[in-house]
Amino acid sequence: MSDPTPALADPEVEASTDVASTNADDIALLARVQAPEGEGREIPDAATRDVIGRAPVHTVADIDAAVARARAAQPAWDAVGHEERSRLLMAAADRIEANAEALARLLSREQGKPLDGPNARFEVGACAAWLRATAATELKPEVVVADGQVHAELHYRALGVVAAVGPWNWPMMITVWQVAPALRMGNTVVAKPSEYTPLSVLALVDVINEVLPADVLIAVSGDRDAGARLTAHPDVDKVMFTGSTATGRKIIESSAGNLARLTLELGGNDAGIVLPDVDPAAIAEGLFWGAFINTGQTCAALKRLYVHDDVYDAVVEALAGYAAHVPMGRGLDEGTVLGPLQNKQQFDIVDRLVEDAKASGGRVVLGGEPATDLGELFYRTTIVADVSDGVALVDEEQFGPALPVIRYSDVEEAIASANGLDVGLGASVWSSDRDAARRVAARLQAGTVWINSHGGVHPLIPFGGVKGSGYGLEFGVEGLKALGVPQVING
């Protein structure tokens, strides 16, 4: 899980060969979670726009009831202890793997990401892997003073009820990122997926709940009113949110009413800096997947690339050459590794930013237009060179398959540009001299700076943003601590 990119171009995941059985499993899984006939909200296939199913639309009253159930279940869940909770998380991972293909196919249709590559099957596999890693992570009491007269230990106790509010780009995996440590620490969870991708998360939670006690993990599905009620609920002790900076600010305001603790992973516009000593051909694949994984719809994707003048043309050529041969298409088509934009709003943002870059003098090296032959929300893999800071495609988060490449001549210029926006989720430095790369990395204002890769995450390595990209850490020991309340035992 540390960095999926080496396997992306040639995925080794095999599909089920029993099509009839697979379709039956898909139908059965969907039937378990969707709204009754004639109720709920229709959810379209991102690639074909056909209706997949109907998501329940829970009301504010339903949210209140879910929080009450979670609150009532929490003491008993806390009392079973870390060892039993870890055992159940391991069992939940087994259940995910047993339902992996049906989960992946539902995710592929609803979100749009293909089955192959670092996409739907990869995401479902990551859910199981993350549950196991979280279950196996130890959080021992920390002795802070032991001088013969004073013995003080720092412990972490369960908070209570956690609200987990997830996005539409990696809906299953990010839900597990939130849910796994919360459950591991003895909290109960009310999870609300994005209204764009509710069915896949409802299905995931349903599968996990095959092994959990009742009301320990509850999924709700609704509109923004439902989400606002959940994050401001007086009986919620912690809010974990992944999404836009604007929504994150609203959650901060609403948390004043209940003093809920917050972990916020918000918007990003990650910069990459390519130093002049690189081999362009050697870094092209890593640059591509850093920018275009999940068709660019990733919070910590590479979204603006600063390349030194000495290697600028060669890097642009190598990157475009690699990108031109990566197949895009409908998610259920085997061999496809790039899919559509998930929704019309995001498609329109990408289209607007690319058109503005063209009008500003940007040179379209690849793509630069919708792929209407593939479907309504497809946009061709796009690389725009010869743009600069101040152009909207550089300054705004595109969250799609369009990468601006900016020329620089002095590394001080590139560092200033990378730090010039009010975001700081991730960044990367590309160089054949790791020490030189580390010196540049230390000056970048980002929660994570990768060297010669971009966006890889690991369940034991803390992850979080700075500035407008939010605050709080996830993953590993620090992630467990964030889902607990510290208690000092002194004596």
Could you explain how this protein is built, in words?
Keywords: Oxidoreductase. This is Acyl-CoA reductase. With 491 residues, the chain is of the alpha/beta class. It has two domains: 11-266 and 469-490, Aldehyde Dehydrogenase, Chain A, domain 1, CATH 3.40.605.10; 270-458, 3-Layer(aba) Sandwich (Aldehyde Dehydrogenase, Chain A, domain 2), CATH 3.40.309.10. It has helices at residues 19-33, 60-79, 81-98, 100-111, 120-136, 171-184, 198-208, 224-231, 245-254, 280-292, 312-323, 344-359, 392-395, 411-418, 434-441, 476-482; strands at residues 41-44, 51-55, 142-146, 151-158, 161-165, 188-192, 217-219, 238-242, 261-265, 270-274, 302-308, 363-366, 382-387, 402-408, 423-424, 426-430, 448-451, 466-467, 470-471, 484-490. Helix 1 packs across helix 7 (198-208).
What tags apply to this protein structure?
seven-stranded mixed beta sheet, Aldehyde Dehydrogenase, Chain A, domain 1, Aldehyde Dehydrogenase, Chain A, domain 2, single chain, Aldehyde_DH_dom, 491 residues, globular, 20 strands
At a glance:
The chain is of the alpha/beta class and 491 residues long. 39% of the residues lie in helices and 20% in strands. The protein folds into two domains: 11-266 and 469-490, Aldehyde Dehydrogenase, Chain A, domain 1 (3-Layer(aba) Sandwich), CATH 3.40.605.10; 270-458, Aldehyde Dehydrogenase, Chain A, domain 2 (3-Layer(aba) Sandwich), CATH 3.40.309.10.
